[in-house]
């Protein structure tokens, strides 16, 4: 079923293709509501950026943060990314969303003294669709310039799933890397990457997916130490995601994770709360 929402007084139409065979009318309605929320929020430049701390494995000191986006419905309730990111990707709205998140992170970096907070960088998630846009580097360059900030303060995260068809995103990734952005491979362990394939990409950091982190912490991730030491031996730094307990933190640093991220340290925080907690310059 193809649902086209037209807006009075606007020429642009966002089309959302819902699969008739798998969605009930109620589910389709819910998805259309999320799409409308997304459109309203994007139109008003109201995407919220939350920041989740990334800490050093050894000392648990703050070193970086990951930007995670949030939108609110008409009642002010947060719609989680698991609900709106897939819709943003299917409708193409992810490009507008990605630009807004990038702009807001740049504004954050330009406003606060990162060093004083202990932040060396901020990570931003890039969807494969966004990466496939040929003018992405141009857009990012313009925004960096508007805010007067350096590209090396931003690390871009690309998921393991999205590098399956590298040909579509390769040029853009290399261009962005050439501009000084660092790259992290997100959700490692959910796709099919191997050391040989990874060497084609300019990643400097690998983020272990929380499913791997969990399995390992309950004694089921037998080969993880071998994978981590292999990745480290060829120069990648390692981040463990979804660290919820001291035991997980200890076991992951034990096998060589350089950085840790998870609820043990902090949930993602709205920017003002992040700044209050970690101290602005
Ligand atoms: P992700 O990039 O893998 O981000 C990590 C997710 O794990 C976040 O969920 C974070 O809140 C959650 N998390 C962090 N620590 C823990 C923990 O200790 N335990 C558990 N159970 N969860 C933890 P969130 O914010 O709901 O985001 C979900 C996904 O949505 C992200 O997964 C990312 O793929 C996507 N996403 C979020 N914001 C953006 C964005 O601005 N652009 C794009 N392209 N994708 C985004
Ligand atoms: Ca991520
Ligand atoms: Ca991840």
Helicity, as a percent range: 40-55%
Percentage beta strand: 15-25%
Distinct ligand kinds:
ligand C2E, calcium ion
Molecular shape: globular
Largest sheet: 8 strands, mixed, barrel
Number of domains: 1
Number of helices: 12
Radius of gyration: 19 Å
What is the CATH topology assignment? TIM Barrel
Mean pLDDT score: 90
Reading the helices and strands in chain order gives EEHEEEHHHEHHEHEHEHHEHEEH
Spatial order of strands in the largest sheet: 3-4-6-7-8-9-10-11
At CATH's second level, what is the architecture? Alpha-Beta Barrel
**Low-confidence segments, ≥5 residues, pLDDT <50?**
1-13
CATH level-1 class: Alpha Beta
Our measurement of the CA-to-CA distance between the termini, rounded to an integer number of angstroms, reads 52 Å
Note the topology:
Layout: E1 2-6, E2 13-17, H1 25-43, E3 48-56, E4 62-72, E5 78-79, H2 81-91, H3 94-111, H4 114-117, E6 121-125, H5 128-131, H6 136-147, E7 154-159, H7 170-178, E8 182-188, H8 195-198, E9 203-208, H9 210-217, H10 224-233, E10 237-240, H11 246-254, E11 259-260, E12 269-270, H12 271-278
Helix pairs in contact: 1-2, 3-6, 9-11
Bound molecules: ligand C2E and calcium ion (2 copies).
Explain what you see:
The chain is α/β, with parallel strands linked by helices and 281 residues long. The chain has a single domain (3-278), classed as Alpha-Beta Barrel (TIM Barrel), CATH 3.20.20. Helix content is 41%, strand content 23%. The protein is built from 12 helices and 12 strands. It has helices at 25-43, 81-91, 94-111, 114-117, 128-131, 136-147, 170-178, 195-198, 210-217, 224-233, 246-254, 271-278, and strands spanning 2-6, 13-17, 48-56, 62-72, 78-79, 121-125, 154-159, 182-188, 203-208, 237-240, 259-260, 269-270. The strands form 2 sheets. It has an 8-stranded mixed barrel with strand order 3-4-6-7-8-9-10-11, surrounded by 5 helices. It has a two-stranded antiparallel ribbon with strand order 1-2. Helix 1 (25-43) crosses helix 2 (81-91) and helix 9 crosses helix 11 (246-254). The longest helix has 19 residues, at 25-43. The chain starts with a strand and ends with a helix. Residues 1-13 have low confidence and may be disordered. The structure holds ligand C2E and calcium ion (2 copies). The site of one calcium ion has 5 residues, from strand 8.
């Amino acid at each position: 079923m193809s649902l086209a929402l037209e807006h009075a007084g606007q020429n642009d139409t966002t089309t959302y293709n819902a699969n008739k065979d798998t969605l009930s009318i109620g589910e389709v309605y819910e998805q259309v509501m999320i799409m409308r929320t997304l459109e309203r929020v994007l139109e008003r430049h109201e995407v919220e950026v939350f920041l989740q701390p990334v800490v050093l494995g050894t000392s648990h000191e703050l070193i970086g943060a990951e930007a995670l986006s949030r939108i609110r419905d008409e009642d002010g309730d947060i719609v989680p990314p698991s609900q709106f990111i897939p819709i943003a990707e299917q409708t193409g709205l992810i490009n507008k969303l990605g630009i807004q998140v990038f702009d807001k992170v740049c504004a954050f970096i330009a406003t606060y003294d990162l060093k004083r907070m202990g932040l060396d960088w901020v990570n931003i998630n890039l969807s494969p669709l966004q990466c496939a846009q040929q003018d992405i580097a141009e857009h990012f360059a313009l925004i960096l310039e508007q805010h007067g900030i350096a590209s090396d303060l931003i690390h871009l995260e690309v998921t393991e799933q999205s590098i399956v068809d590298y040909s579509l995103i390769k040029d853009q990734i290399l261009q962005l890397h050439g501009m000084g952005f660092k790259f992290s491979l997100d959700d490692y362990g959910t796709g099919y990457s191997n050391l040989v394939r990874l060497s084609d990409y300019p990643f400097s950091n690998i983020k272990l997916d929380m499913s791997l982190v969990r399995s390992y912490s309950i004694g089921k991730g037998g080969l993880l130490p071998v994978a981590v030491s292999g990745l480290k031996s060829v120069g990648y730094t390692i981040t463990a995601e979804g660290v919820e307990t001291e035991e997980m933190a200890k076991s992951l640093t034990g096998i060589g994770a350089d950085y840790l991220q998870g609820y043990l340290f902090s949930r993602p925080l709205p920017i003002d709360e992040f700044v209050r907690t970690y101290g602005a310059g």
